[in-house]
Design a protein that fits this description.
The structure holds two protein chains of two kinds. By secondary structure, chain A is mostly beta strands. Chain A is 0% helix and 48% strand. The N and C termini of chain A lie far apart (37 Å). In chain B, the strands form two sheets. In chain B, strands 2, 4, 5, 9, 10 and 11 form a six-stranded mixed β-sheet that branches. In chain B, strands 1-3-8-7-6 form a five-stranded antiparallel β-sheet, with no helix packed on it. Chain B is globular, with a radius of gyration of 13 Å. The chains are: A mainly beta, B mainly beta.
Chain lengths: 114, 112
């Protein structure tokens, strides 16, 4: 079974630039998550999709972050403009459904904002 | 406000001994708890879970204990192996399908 695919693995940008991350979840998984993990912290939810609808985006900084999940499969997360404090690992995860399901994570994208 | 707390940033154990990782939570609505393990440059991987209707769940060398009245859970690894060296995250959720909320993690180092 193929895992959650993410790209790129690493990205270095300057502040105020824009960046986009891509995620392909495990086939058949209805729920997709984007988490932000700052060094020394646990993963923090940014947005949760159920198929192509948003379930929870309460912690997404909507003035600069946006995410979409077209056709209920792949997803992209964008930051525009980036700030220094956005430096983190961005993790995509998927699960079969929303309730009491273990999440499968991708390897993440390491973002450095200079 | 942290709803899931792992108060020990690190733990060092000798190979063959028991590792005990602790986790506390504040939200009484949580009813499902998971432990994830993370190696450097990889995403977290699921290790073991427990529902609030149980107080213990075992899988090989890994056992999770849940004390609902104390809002506390612990992960026991027996015997510990060098390959267990990783960051361990405690996570919690509920029947409403809330996304997992993670603690800050505990770095386990198992020396041979």
């Amino acid at each position: 079974e193929a895992g959650v695919a993410q790209s790129p693995r690493y990205k270095i940008i300057e502040k105020r630039q824009s960046v986009a991350f891509w995620c392909n979840p495990i086939s058949g998984h209805a729920t997709l998550y984007w988490y932000q993990q700052i060094l020394g912290q646990g993963p923090k939810l940014l947005i949760q999709f159920q198929n192509n609808g948003v379930v929870d985006d309460s912690q997404l900084p909507k003035d600069r972050f946006s995410a979409e999940r077209l056709k209920g499969v792949d997803s992209t997360l964008k930051i525009q403009p980036a700030k220094l404090e956005d430096s983190a690992v961005y993790l995509c995860a998927s699960s079969l459904n929303r309730v009491n399901e273990k999440l499968f994570f991708g390897s993440g994208t390491q973002l450095s904002v200079l | 406000d942290q709803q899931v707390k792992q108060n020990s940033p690190s733990l060092s154990v000798q190979e063959g001994r028991i590792s005990i990782l602790n986790c506390d939570y504040t939200n009484s609505m949580f009813d499902y708890f998971l432990w994830y393990k993370k190696y450097p440059a990889e995403g977290p991987t699921f290790l073991i879970s427990i529902s609030s209707i149980k107080d213990k769940n075992e899988d090989g060398r890994f056992t999770v204990f849940l004390n609902k009245s104390a809002k506390h859970l612990s992960l026991h690894i027996v015997p510990s192996q060098p390959g267990d060296s990783a960051v361990y995250f405690c996570a919690a959720t509920n029947q409403a399908g809330t996304a997992l909320i993670f603690g800050k993690g505990t770095t386990l180092s198992v020396s041979s």
